[in-house]
Amino acid sequence: MMSNIIATDGDFEIKLFLARQRIEEWYEHHDGKVYINFSGGKDSTVLAHMVWAMYPEVPAMFSNTGLEYPEIVDFVKKKTSEGMPIITLRPKTTFRESILTEGFPLVSKKVAEMVSRLRKPRTEKNDATHNLYLTGFKRDGTFSRGSKLSSKWVKLINAPFKTTNKCCDTLKKEPFRRYQKETGLAPYTGVMRSEGGQRSLIKTCNSFDGKEPMSRPMLPWSEDDVWEYIRRFDVEYSDIYKDRTVNGVQVKGESRTGCMFCAFGAHLEKGENRFQRMYYSHPKQWNYCINKLGMAEALDFIGVPYYPSALNKIDDRNYDLFDNI
Question: Coil, strand or helix: which one is 36?
Answer without folding.
Answer: strand
